[in-house]
Amino acid sequence: MGESEGLPTFTGLVVHRDPDVGYSLLLPDGWQRANVPETGGALYTPDPADPTTGLEVSGQRLGTTVRARDLAAIRRGFFQGLRQLPECQIERQEATGVGELLTLEARLTYRQDEAVRKRWVRLLYQGKTQIRLLAEGSSVERFAYWEPMFFTAFRTVRFGDWWSEATGLDWVDTVFQDRDQSASLDPLLPAPRPSDPAPGTTSDSS
Fold it and tell me: Distance of CA 188 to CAs 6, 41, 169, 175, Å?
């Protein structure tokens, strides 16, 4: 799929859920998923012909509670780490705190061998939990092509379960108990829609 074809087309969304850590986010349907043992997370790639373009998501429980006053120290470590990348050029950066929620993000380019890659990384902290999202393009152009879909994931990540709004329950194993068990929900689900019924009910919507 080349950049000359315009923007990628959304065919649907699925929910990535991590009940152990306690976060979820929406992702484009159809992306290939691979586990990342080093982080305990997952890597989603949209194009099998371009495996170095994709989105990595992970989370972890920390040994201590992160407070609003910790933002400055976390920010220093975050950007110091990014600048270790070869020929790193940070294009945009942000670090904010709202109550006990801390978020940091940066967009940057760096060189790997002969390629200039573009990366967008976001960290979120709440209590004793950290969420990490990393989107990367094998080139600046490939990043730009997939950026609208990266944006969806980055802006829908949340502490908690996306499906709780449809079911009224957190971290259920199956959403619709009267449907085929292939609807099992770990780790991916179709994204909730307003017309989706609660478990054990039917919907009047067409």
Answer: 28, 13, 17, 12
Q: Is 24:186 a contact under the CB 8 Å cutoff?
A: no
- Residue 13 pairs in a beta bridge with 28
Q: What is the DSSP letter of 192?
A: P
DSSP 67: -
Residue with tokens 């967009």: 107
The span from the CA of 142 to the CA of 126, in Å, is 32
50 alpha carbon, distance to own chain's centre: 19
Question: How, if at all, do strands 101-112 and 188-190 pair?
Answer: unpaired
Find the DSSP H helices in the chain: 71-82, 140-156, 164-167
Cα–Cα distance for residue pair 201/91, rounded to 1 Å: 49
Q: Encoding tokens for residue 187?
A: 């780790």
CA 129 – CA 22 distance, rounded (Å): 8
Q: Are 125 and 17 in contact (CB under 8 A)?
A: no
* Dist. CA 53–CA 110, nearest whole Å: 14
The pLDDT-based confidence of 184 (bands split at 50, 70, 90) is: very low
The pTM for the full model equals 0.81
Report the distance separating Cα 76 and Cα 84, nearest Å: 13
165: left (phi over 0), alpha (psi -120 to 50) or beta: alpha
